[in-house]
Amino acid sequence: MNTSCASRFLKIKRSLTHKDVLCCLFITAKRFSTRELLNEAYCRTKLKCRSKKLPQDVNPQGVFACNELDLSEVKVYGFDYDYTLAHYKPSLEHLLYNLGRDMLLEKYKYPAGIANLEYKPDFAVRGLHYDIEKGLLLKLDSFLQIQFGAVYRGLTPVPTEEVLKLYKNRIIPIAYVEGDTRAHKTNQAKMVHLADLFSVPEMGLLCNVAEYFNKNHIDYHPEILFLDVKNSVQHCHPIMHKIVAQNVEEYVRPNSGLKKYFRLLQEEGKKLFLVTNSPFHFVNAGMEMLVGHEWRDFFDVVIVNANKPKFFTEVSRPIRVFDKNANTHIWEKVTSLEKGIIYYEGTVKQMQDLTGWSGHQVLYFGDHPYSDLADVTLEHGWRTGAIINELTHEINTLNTNTFKQNANWLQMLTQLIEDHQDYKQPEALEIIEKWMAERDYLRNATKSVFNPQFGSVFRTYHNPTYFSRRLFRFADIYTSNIRHLLNYSLTHTFYPRRGVMPHEYGSYFV
Ligand SMILES: [Mg+2]
Fold first, then answer.
1. Exposed / middle / buried, residue 414 (Cβ in 10 Å: 0-12, 13-18, 19+)
2. Is 419 a catalytic residue?
3. Would you state the pLDDT for residue 325?
4. Average pLDDT for residues 447-470, to the nearest whole number?
5. Is the pLDDT of residue 23 over 80?
6. Is 70 annotated as a binding residue?
7. How many angstroms is it from 368 CA to the middle of ligand 1?
8. How far is ligand 1, taken at its centre, from the CA of residue 63, in Å?
9. What are the beta bridge partners of residue 364?
10. What pLDDT digit, counting tens, does each position of 411-453 carry?
11. Is 180 designated active site?
12. Which domains does the chain have, with CATH numbers?
């Protein structure tokens, strides 16, 4: 064993098992077959991995920047309501699921056996795609590649061989996923992106019913099932609004930071507005519980039933006054937006014309990457903050020692395989195959800790998901709760970290 090797072992010896040290001492003492060389390389890599200090915990209350954002430029703060200001307890998903299931039975006359199907809260995650032609729920990455092992028909995983047979490829053509928008092409998308948190119980119902049909050999059209489930759940929203408004504590999580944050913004002379698709009585009940009876004093403009994304994209839908006492809207033309009055529908153009708020002086918070964030960024130049509820669970998972160790070793093992893959001797191939099997095990272990079926909302095995690419494109900052903004001053600048490009790995500044 040479001197440098010996000193290295002394350095890291404390973190190793006796067996590891013996293995490396034995192998480095002589140079023999390819098998021994590969075993030595594995052993050295493992020792190096164990000697590495695990990364620090990520702050679950952090606000993360995709794009530089200087809050001192922001004069107007806008908010969506559902899943942005109001975070719901699991009871809301159960309620939506049960109402949707009952609607399927009553309105669409689905088989009575469906009444016994209970909601499985941890089955699906947000950001999946549903293939309306093939009836599959699956996860795509930012390259439109299918994540194998995350494709389900009903509640049953579809084996990779079958997935490849169905799609002929691991990459799905963009026209299939998003529709073909080129001139003279009218192909409709065959996939629906489930980017809304309200769609999670919808997916749960869809998969439960599909599983029931499959198990009972009932023939069905995946698109019809999708539309029936979607319409059932959406038709239930008014009933859900009523139930939740009558018993807010059972469904809405308290959030004491909200009032503090609104007060801070108001004291610093910022303007505040609320634009939500939900009806007034529902929002009012939630906001009274979250902020207090005088919650409207904080807001300069309140627009309910806004019908986003149309609110951000249409140009000629009149803004109307909502009479909360009569629970209806008034016919008069709106010529100014006044504090204390509830508005209804309208468009962002009218709001901008009547208030003068526009461009980068507006920061809008929402949870939906399309209907809240995409158009305001692309069309109106507003700054955007995404409120992503799932971030808490994802960060808490990243912070566990087991995850850190597995993710570390996965990286190093992948590098080891890459460096040694060109050996052609049968003994080498046998060893590399073992490494590949270990890598597969680690990939699955680091995936399933987030969600056993679909893994992380943000990642496939190594790439960002389709959902996170959209999110990072349209959000300047993101966090799991509005109250985390209280940890920063109103002149704070959020700086994005210098991301590492593939050719920069190993460079001195990484
Ligand atoms: Mg929302």
1. middle
2. no
3. 72
4. 93
5. no
6. no
7. 6
8. 18
9. 78, 384
10. 999 999 999 989 888 999 999 999 999 999 999 999 999 999 9
11. no
12. 34-60+391-494 (no CATH), 73-87+252-381 (3.40.50.1000), 90-248 (no CATH)
